[in-house]
Design goal:
The protein has helices at 3-20, 26-36, 41-45, 47-69, 71-91, 95-121, 126-158, 164-180, 204-235, 243-266, 269-289, 295-309, 312-323, 328-337, 341-355, 361-377. By secondary structure, it is mostly helical. α11 (269-289) runs antiparallel to α12 (295-309). The radius of gyration is 20 Å and the shape is globular.
Length: 383
């Protein structure tokens, strides 16, 4: 493929990672939904589960369908589902349609994550694949950073936070049309029907990688959710100003993913992984146990955690694919099933917070366990 043609094919694929980042808006939306519908802490903490439970239920079926209709067509289906969900609250908005919108967002994002990462592997392989997937995470991180800003814009200039839904819907339409109109290299071989990806868990390394995805997504969603609550608890910020916590997390994650794209192309993956996770564990524990009330330090620690965790998803995902490259679709389905960590960790954090009499230290301790596991996983990744 010629260089210009290659780049033109690559652009709409990477723009798909921007749509992928919409799912992270559920973190800051939790407080809006809680206040608007007068929900309890436990009920509002269930909202991320409405989004991320689909990664457990639909990742394997998506891998099966993807083998039959192709990766590009599966990506397009994911965007259609997302568009339906994003415009539903525009016509009728109540508690039911709000939860339905997030459910559709989760379904669409599940299909997208299962299919978009393998679509990248149509164009890259080996070490270049790790770097390319990290580049995709840069785009996703930019989208995640924009989410809180779009929410604040919707409140200040459009009258209510839920107007972010049609904005996301319009961007998804643009992404779908662009990808539909762009020729993308197809899989080189005719793929057979997918096997059950859960059988791959009998391989110890694949099992460890799967749990690593659960852990890193748990940290990502958990920090997205807790950063706002930390600013309210420790700095007495109001609801709108506290969105700064999520924005700081995602802008630092964006910078970290951008830098990681280049570092992973030239340095040991294991060294990069280990250094970042040891630092992340220390930062989470520092944020949990030190009674910090300085905005600079609180926001700095939140941002630093985002920086260190920014490229870890791509590292684990790529390591799993390279372990069994002949089973890329099945491994993709299995690894994306691990994104269910975004449904598992928020309720655990909410429960732990209640155990600590409402202190967010409880939620941070749950995240520290995930970071500790990822430190262990650094010994599994190849040099």
């Amino acid at each position: 493929m010629k260089k210009n043609s290659f780049i033109l094919s690559l652009l709409p694929i990477f723009f798909g990672f921007f749509v992928m980042g919409f799912v992270d808006v559920v973190g800051i939306s939790t407080n809006y939904v809680k206040d608007q519908f007068n929900l309890s802490e436990a009920m509002s903490g269930f909202l991320p589960s409405v989004v991320f439970i689909w990664f457990f239920l639909l990742s394997y079926p998506t891998a099966v369908v993807m083998n039959k209709i192709g990766r590009k067509n599966t990506v397009l289906i994911s965007m259609l589902v997302t568009i339906v969900g994003m415009f539903l609250p525009f016509f009728i908005f109540d508690k039911t349609t709000c939860y339905l919108a997030f459910a559709f967002l989760g379904i669409g994002n599940t299909i997208l994550q299962v299919s978009l990462n393998p679509l990248v592997s149509n164009m890259f392989n080996g070490k270049a694949l790790t770097s390319a997937l990290t580049g995709g995470q840069v785009v996703k991180a930019v989208s995640s950073f924009c989410g809180p800003l779009i929410a604040s814009f919707s409140v200040i200039y459009l009258g209510n936070w839920q107007n972010l839904f049609p904005i996301f819907g319009a961007i998804t339409i643009l992404s779908a049309v662009w990808l539909l109109a762009t020729p993308v290299p197809k899989e080189e071989v005719e793929l057979k029907s997918a096997g059950n990806p859960f059988k791959l868990l009998s391989d110890t390394k694949i099992l460890f990688f799967f749990l690593g995805i659960v852990a890193v997504v748990g940290i990502d969603v958990g920090m997205n959710m807790i950063s706002k609550k930390l600013l309210i608890e420790r700095l007495a910020y109001n609801n709108e100003t506290a969105n700064l916590g999520a924005s700081m997390y995602f802008i630092c994650r964006t910078i970290g993913a951008f830098i990681g794209t280049f570092l992973l192309a030239v340095m040991s993956t294991r060294l990069y992984f280990r250094a970042n996770m040891l630092v992340a564990l220390g930062l989470i524990l520092l944020l949990a146990f030190l009674p910090i009330s300085s905005p600079v330090f609180v926001l700095g620690l939140i941002g630093a955690i985002g920086f260190t965790c920014s490229s870890i998803f791509a590292v684990i995902f790529s390591a799993a694919i390279q372990e069994k490259p002949e089973k890329t679709n099945e491994i993709s389905g299995l690894m994306i099933t691990g994104v269910v960590g975004g449904a598992v960790f928020p309720p655990l954090m909410t429960f732990s917070t209640q155990v600590f009499n409402g202190a967010q230290m409880g939620g941070l301790l749950v995240l520290s366990i995930a970071a500790l596991y990822l430190c262990f996983l650094t010994m599994v990744v190849k040099r």
